[in-house]
């Protein structure tokens, strides 16, 4: 078999396995075998860029960066649906329809998923473009991100039409959502509020590799096209399934409205058994011919209706409002409730968000409150039953002092959250910061977990992350649940963390607003902690992607003498507080002061490698051509609009070889 055939065979095999796993939910090989094949394909593609394919399964892992999402008009407008809330609403709708069309009307019933709407365009069986709903007339091109979603076919199967759009919803199953939040909490970040917003936020991430890490799914149910040989909505679901799309199984062809209501009533009860959020049923006139006769109002199709389930709600007594202090000092009020069953689980606590929310709803201890579980995993209080209120109760006084250290709280103008400013002395902040420092994406200290950190702090053995490096085995062994072996593991883990590169140490320091990506940018730009420490706010803002808010936070972080003392100690203990000599050796100033735009497909290095080469040599990478651009590095298939723009602005267009010559 020649190389090209080998590549094609691997691509076909991987697509097939991907389909079995993510669409049919029926894997036929192990994850290990799959990864082996994927790796093999990656290597072959890297060695033979001439066989590049924009829809290769290797692109599932992402890597493409989108700075500005291009606005794309929808070929077929994306309408929103009219809502109904009762049997009567549906009956009225049926009457209106029967006046407008002849013959028997049948309906398809489908579940309504709560996610981010998406429109996919397929040309000759290949995914050409993915566009968000936007305002219904035009949306954002999020193709690079959508390609990483495993259940979106990059190549169709069977007998598909040459050109069509298919619409559906990108959703985040509960299980994946809970897992993502657990990781965020581990990193000391705020958990996401609900799967829906998280799914739509994911589509607009700039780094598609980040999207690839999220367990998103794409459910499809609506085909649009000029020459698509389909006669009914129910048939279109079956066809879409045949072509390789993930189409929800829970769909029914109903001969009349009674059968529609059966479907509605069944799922009103059983929806909690589904792996993802559904908030209702979509009922559509089945015949496409009849759909055409019915047409559209200004906003919605007349042939479809959304039926919304009632959000599950219960009332219970609010016993007490307590307050939690996070790693950054943020205060979160929590409602402690009389235990009550809601949507199949026992609820004892509900989120109250912040002081404004409590004031707005006038929530008081002792009140009977209405609790709802909507898209959020954590139930929320949506109101008070004022008929049950004790006439002697008085409005809730939000705390003015930290519940943990009694320091007066502060609230910055325009911010909803109160903060405890006692960063150095407030126990949950001290513990939270050290927990963040040792977490997987920061120092990754093995053998040391969040609870152990709390134990060490509470026993007075450590008070900040620098203290970790002075820990001794004999101090740890006498503690609760500790033994020789676990103490050894901690000491070894701490020792090993001295090899963790600067950018991760910087992330671990826990500067507010400095996440993984920002830490990397700052580390690469300033190269040492001392240079970063001395940077002024004005200088920081000139660094790519660093805004006012981050700059301010960095400056105030280093303004504290205590922080400086801790950093000096980390330095002394051998923690990496500058970029390693090896990494520096690969960096030059050759391209300093030059801004590059990279466009097209390259043969000797990948697009990402090219960008890295530019940055390592002191140049700047920008995503769009402007008067500030010095060079456009053009590969094959450079976009014609970019080319025209570069020429009109007189920007030099150079080839990959020209560029490699420069460095
Ligand atoms: Zn405090």
TrEMBL record:
<dbReference type="InterPro" id="IPR004150">
    <property type="entry name" value="NAD_DNA_ligase_OB"/>
</dbReference>
<feature type="binding site">
    <location>
        <position position="402"/>
    </location>
    <ligand>
        <name>Zn(2+)</name>
    </ligand>
</feature>
<keyword id="KW-0227">DNA damage</keyword>
<keyword id="KW-0436">Ligase</keyword>
<keyword id="KW-0464">Manganese</keyword>
<keyword id="KW-0479">Metal-binding</keyword>
<dbReference type="GO" id="GO:0003677">
    <property type="term" value="F:DNA binding"/>
</dbReference>
<dbReference type="GO" id="GO:0005829">
    <property type="term" value="C:cytosol"/>
</dbReference>
<feature type="binding site">
    <location>
        <position position="420"/>
    </location>
    <ligand>
        <name>Zn(2+)</name>
    </ligand>
</feature>
<feature type="binding site">
    <location>
        <position position="133"/>
    </location>
    <ligand>
        <name>NAD(+)</name>
    </ligand>
</feature>
<dbReference type="InterPro" id="IPR013840">
    <property type="entry name" value="DNAligase_N"/>
</dbReference>
<feature type="binding site">
    <location>
        <begin position="31"/>
        <end position="35"/>
    </location>
    <ligand>
        <name>NAD(+)</name>
    </ligand>
</feature>
<dbReference type="InterPro" id="IPR036420">
    <property type="entry name" value="BRCT_dom_sf"/>
</dbReference>
<dbReference type="Pfam" id="PF01653">
    <property type="entry name" value="DNA_ligase_aden"/>
</dbReference>
<dbReference type="InterPro" id="IPR001679">
    <property type="entry name" value="DNA_ligase"/>
</dbReference>
<keyword id="KW-0234">DNA repair</keyword>
<dbReference type="GO" id="GO:0003911">
    <property type="term" value="F:DNA ligase (NAD+) activity"/>
</dbReference>
<keyword id="KW-0862">Zinc</keyword>
<protein>
    <recommendedName>
        <fullName>DNA ligase</fullName>
        <ecNumber>6.5.1.2</ecNumber>
    </recommendedName>
</protein>
<feature type="binding site">
    <location>
        <position position="405"/>
    </location>
    <ligand>
        <name>Zn(2+)</name>
    </ligand>
</feature>
<dbReference type="InterPro" id="IPR012340">
    <property type="entry name" value="NA-bd_OB-fold"/>
</dbReference>
<feature type="binding site">
    <location>
        <position position="426"/>
    </location>
    <ligand>
        <name>Zn(2+)</name>
    </ligand>
</feature>
<keyword id="KW-0235">DNA replication</keyword>
<dbReference type="InterPro" id="IPR003583">
    <property type="entry name" value="Hlx-hairpin-Hlx_DNA-bd_motif"/>
</dbReference>
<feature type="binding site">
    <location>
        <position position="284"/>
    </location>
    <ligand>
        <name>NAD(+)</name>
    </ligand>
</feature>
<dbReference type="InterPro" id="IPR041663">
    <property type="entry name" value="DisA/LigA_HHH"/>
</dbReference>
<dbReference type="Pfam" id="PF03120">
    <property type="entry name" value="OB_DNA_ligase"/>
</dbReference>
<dbReference type="Pfam" id="PF22745">
    <property type="entry name" value="Nlig-Ia"/>
</dbReference>
<dbReference type="GO" id="GO:0006260">
    <property type="term" value="P:DNA replication"/>
</dbReference>
<dbReference type="InterPro" id="IPR010994">
    <property type="entry name" value="RuvA_2-like"/>
</dbReference>
<dbReference type="Pfam" id="PF00533">
    <property type="entry name" value="BRCT"/>
</dbReference>
<feature type="binding site">
    <location>
        <position position="308"/>
    </location>
    <ligand>
        <name>NAD(+)</name>
    </ligand>
</feature>
<dbReference type="Pfam" id="PF12826">
    <property type="entry name" value="HHH_2"/>
</dbReference>
<feature type="binding site">
    <location>
        <position position="169"/>
    </location>
    <ligand>
        <name>NAD(+)</name>
    </ligand>
</feature>
<feature type="binding site">
    <location>
        <position position="110"/>
    </location>
    <ligand>
        <name>NAD(+)</name>
    </ligand>
</feature>
<keyword id="KW-0460">Magnesium</keyword>
<dbReference type="Pfam" id="PF03119">
    <property type="entry name" value="DNA_ligase_ZBD"/>
</dbReference>
<feature type="binding site">
    <location>
        <begin position="80"/>
        <end position="81"/>
    </location>
    <ligand>
        <name>NAD(+)</name>
    </ligand>
</feature>
<dbReference type="GO" id="GO:0006281">
    <property type="term" value="P:DNA repair"/>
</dbReference>
<dbReference type="GO" id="GO:0046872">
    <property type="term" value="F:metal ion binding"/>
</dbReference>
<feature type="domain" description="BRCT">
    <location>
        <begin position="586"/>
        <end position="663"/>
    </location>
</feature>
<comment type="function">
    <text>DNA ligase that catalyzes the formation of phosphodiester linkages between 5'-phosphoryl and 3'-hydroxyl groups in double-stranded DNA using NAD as a coenzyme and as the energy source for the reaction. It is essential for DNA replication and repair of damaged DNA.</text>
</comment>
């Amino acid at each position: 078999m020649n190389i090209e055939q080998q590549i094609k065979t691997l691509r076909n095999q991987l697509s097939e396995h991907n389909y079995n796993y993510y669409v049919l939910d029926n894997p036929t090989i192990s994850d290990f075998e799959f990864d082996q094949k994927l790796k093999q394909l990656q290597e072959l593609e890297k060695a033979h860029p001439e066989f590049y394919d924009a829809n290769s399964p290797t692109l599932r892992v992402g890597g493409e960066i989108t700075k500005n999402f291009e606005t794309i008009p929808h070929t077929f407008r994306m309408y929103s649906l009219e809502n109904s809330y009762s049997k009567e609403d549906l009956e009225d709708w049926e009457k209106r329809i029967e006046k407008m069309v002849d013959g028997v009307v049948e309906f398809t019933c489908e579940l309504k998923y709560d996610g981010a709407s998406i429109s996919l365009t397929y040309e000759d069986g290949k995914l050409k473009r993915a566009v968000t709903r936007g305002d219904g007339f035009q949306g954002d091109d999020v193709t690079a991100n959508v390609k990483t979603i495993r259940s979106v076919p990059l190549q169709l199967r069977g007998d598909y039409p040459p050109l069509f759009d298919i619409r559906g919803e990108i959703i985040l199953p509960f299980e994946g959502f809970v897992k993502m939040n657990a990781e965020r909490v581990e990193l000391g970040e705020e958990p996401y509020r609900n799967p829906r917003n998280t799914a739509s936020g994911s589509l607009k991430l700039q780094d598609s590799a980040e999207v690839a890490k999220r367990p998103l799914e794409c459910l499809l149910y609506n085909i649009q096209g000029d020459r698509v040989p389909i006669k009914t909505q129910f048939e279109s679901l079956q066809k879409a399934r045949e072509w390789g799309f993930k189409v929800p199984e829970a769909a029914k062809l109903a001969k009349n409205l009674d059968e529609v209501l059966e479907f509605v009533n069944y799922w009103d009860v059983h929806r909690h058994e589904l792996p993802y959020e559904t908030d209702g049923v979509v009922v559509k006139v089945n015949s496409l011919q009849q759909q055409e006769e019915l047409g559209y109002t200004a906003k919605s199709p007349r042939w479809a209706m959304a039926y919304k389930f009632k959000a599950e709600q219960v009332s219970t007594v609010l016993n007490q409002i307590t307050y939690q202090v996070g790693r950054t000092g943020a205060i979160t009020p929590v409602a402690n409730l009389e235990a009550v069953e809601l949507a199949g689980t026992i609820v004892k606590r509900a989120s109250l968000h912040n002081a404004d929310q409590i004031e707005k709803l006038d929530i008081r201890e002792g009140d009977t409150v209405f609790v709802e579980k909507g898209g959020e995993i954590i139930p929320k209080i949506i109101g008070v039953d004022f008929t049950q209120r004790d006439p002697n109760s008085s409005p809730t006084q939000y705390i003015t002092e930290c519940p943990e250290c009694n320091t007066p709280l502060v609230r910055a103008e325009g911010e909803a959250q109160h903060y405890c400013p006692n960063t150095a002395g407030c126990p949950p902040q001290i513990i939270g910061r050290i927990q963040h420092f040792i977490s997987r994406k920061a120092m990754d200290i093995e053998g040391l977990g969040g609870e152990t950190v709390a134990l060490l702090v509470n026993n007075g053995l450590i008070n900040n992350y620098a203290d970790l490096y002075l820990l001794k085995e004999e101090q740890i062994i006498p503690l609760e649940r500790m033994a020789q072996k676990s103490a050894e593991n901690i000491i070894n883990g701490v020792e090993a963390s001295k090899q963790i590169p600067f950018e991760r140490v910087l992330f671990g320091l826990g500067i507010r607003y400095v996440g993984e990506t920002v830490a990397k940018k700052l580390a690469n730009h300033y190269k040492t902690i001392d240079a970063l420490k001395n940077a002024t706010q004005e200088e920081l803002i000139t660094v790519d992607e660093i805004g006012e808010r981050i700059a301010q936070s960095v400056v105030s972080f280093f303004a504290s003498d205590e922080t400086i003392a801790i950093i000096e100690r980390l330095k002394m203990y051998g923690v990496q507080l500058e970029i390693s000599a090896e990494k520096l050796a690969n960096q030059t100033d050759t391209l300093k002061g030059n801004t590059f735009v990279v466009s097209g497909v390259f043969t000797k290095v990948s697009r990402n490698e090219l960008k890295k080469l530019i940055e390592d040599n002191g140049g700047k990478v920008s995503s769009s051509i402007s008067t500030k651009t010095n060079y456009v590095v053009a590969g094959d298939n450079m976009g014609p609009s970019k080319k025209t723009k570069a020429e009109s602005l007189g920007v030099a267009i150079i080839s990959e070889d020209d560029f490699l010559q420069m460095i």
